[in-house]
Amino acid sequence: MKPEKSKRKSGKKRPITDGVIMKSNGDASAGTSGSGMNGSAKKKRREKRGSEEIPVLEDCDDLDSDGVEPGSIEMADNAMEWMINPTPLQEFYSTYFEKKPLHIKRSQATYYKDVFSTKALEKAVREQRVLYGKHMDITSYDGKRETHNPEGRVYPPVMWDYYNNGSSIRMINPQYFNQTVWKLCSTLQDHFQCMVGANVYLTPPGTQGFAPHWDDVEVFMLQLEGKKHWRLYEPADKLPRFSSHNMSQEDLGTPILETDLEPGDLLYLPRGTIHQGNCLESDHSLHITISAYQLNSWTDLLEKLLPAALAVASSTDKEFREGLPRDYLQHLGAVNSENQSEERTSFLKKVEKLMGKLFKHAPVDGCVDQMGKKLMYDALPPCLELHEKARTVHGDGEKWNSKNKCVVNRVEFDPDTRVRLIRSTALRLVQEDEEVIKVYFSTENTREYHEVEEQWLEVDADIAPGIDFLINSYPEYIKVEELPIEDLEARMRVVSDLWEKGILMTEEPLESHYDDP
Questions:
Q1: Is 411 exposed, middle or buried (0-12, 13-18, 19+ CB in 10 A)?
Q2: What is the DSSP letter of 479?
Q3: Residue 138: which of 105, 170, 90 has the closest Cα?
Q4: Does residue 513 register a pLDDT over 90?
């Protein structure tokens, strides 16, 4: 069942200790019990890796050949390499990415078999609250695209009745219901450095569920079961920012690629590639699309940058505040566009000059941080392994002991405790204005897109260098005492605050400083 949307109070101070270090937009609890600098912590041996694996990463050990725990970017690159294998990453980006489709024919039916299945689809519908329109669409296409969604919850007998009558089933954001898809998408976020999503499509034999169209995302189709026939067409406008309407067959030209996808095959489509797929009479089809790069273009950055640059320029450069020529309306505009008057030429040269000067005032880093802030809101939360949970707030720290009827395992950080970010995409440090610095983070997002509001902590200026140090040190672990914050107690409190938000992970599980009853 869908969790209720959390209500956030903007800017509420966290009652940590005397001397506020951070403020949060969410309800916050007190600092970690017993957190302080007393004693010397003993560390527990790291727990063995659990069984929460997906095929992408199942062969990865905790430590690499140099004895160093890999970071999330390295793990994400491995996942991407696995997904497009045997095409090397460098070849993919130089030859195919945003340029042309890639069809990988593997003749290895089991390659993607553990990612998702029809059985997993039915399990989600039976055990969880899947809703028509929000989580699932029932569709058909016979010259015209139709959607047949009833209202309310999806029940298996009704869903299968639609399927048996020739309708396709689209599960929207299966990562919300399925751990494996969540792990794959959240891992790939660190490769693309943007939100990664997914949809699942189940199509009956001899049918087509969708009209020809193009998408506004980079699409990776992973064929899971059965067979599907695909026809791809050259886009009218390459790399569009928005998806197309449902197209008719008359809108299409000659296919640039026509092929069948079988289990284990991959088909990559750059944004804007027109495509349509239909099942052969002999086979059903199940495939999952992994998508990335939605509204992640230069245009999207410049939409933030140009207004910001103009605001800076108008406040610092008098030339931008000078009045327009008194007679400019008489020489410019649509009715004067063909005129070549001296006044018009002078005006256009002035505009060109100001546009050139505008770059000098462009706060590029600040606007890139705004893109990073958006990612923190959009991103899936990290899908943690058992050995990672044991070193985070998700698995370490205080616990209730039912036998003794009390709280046990009261942990604390020491100056020599070694920590790092849980993921490279866990947080973004943003200077909102001259006085306000915020840490935006993704670790308290849910698997449902924008189910909760933006998560942030406001930090004092003297704390920001410590956050910056954590970001730039990743994936290395650093000692708490190494943070470039003047006061050691403040370093301890910052680490405690970030750990409580699931942003930091310790190198080893913490051991209690206290004798539990």
A1: buried
A2: E
A3: 170
A4: no
